[in-house]
Amino acid sequence: MIRHTVAFTLVHAPGSPEEQDFLTRGPELLRAIPGVTDFTVSRQVSPKSDFRFQFAMSFADEEAYAAYDAHPDHRGFVAERWQSEVARFEELDFVAYP
Amino acid sequence: MIRHTVAFTLVHAPGSPEEQDFLTRGPELLRAIPGVTDFTVSRQVSPKSDFRFQFAMSFADEEAYAAYDAHPDHRGFVAERWQSEVARFEELDFVAYP
């Protein structure tokens, strides 16, 4: 099991309709892609970081993760929204230790 | 519910006994602190980041989080191990959107 996470900050004003649209329509699209499980949308609330949101999702294995990455709906979302609406982001992926 | 996470890289050599000790004894101590739930230890596996591990835990509310932060076992772990064995870290805390 792999937990794929991305913390990000949007170019939109906090609380704006554009922010809300990104945070609701993005997940609607992405969580429907085959292999995606436990998709969550979070606010980042630590004052030690200026990231404001996080999308996170789980994949059973690397193959499912790769299929998501290559899926047209994912690629389209990145091209049409992510690249223009996200100001800064960080991807972290986790597997259980050890 | 607040998910408190910290991604980090140790000063120890990968696969060393010192690394293993930090990753097993730290969680043993921290997960026993009152208010801590769902404590996880993960490897960070995205090649897009050089953080190598993550501790994550949940708290019911800000009060439980603050009590953990102030707990002597947490403060002792930070002073005795974290400050000397962690090379770099990032804290991110999450609550469900909206």
From TrEMBL, chains A, B:
Family matches, as Pfam families: Dabb
UniProt domain Stress-response A/B barrel: residue ranges: 2-94
Official protein name in the record: Stress-response A/B barrel domain-containing protein
Species, as recorded: Brachybacterium phenoliresistens
Source species taxonomy: Bacteria, Bacillati, Actinomycetota, Actinomycetes, Micrococcales
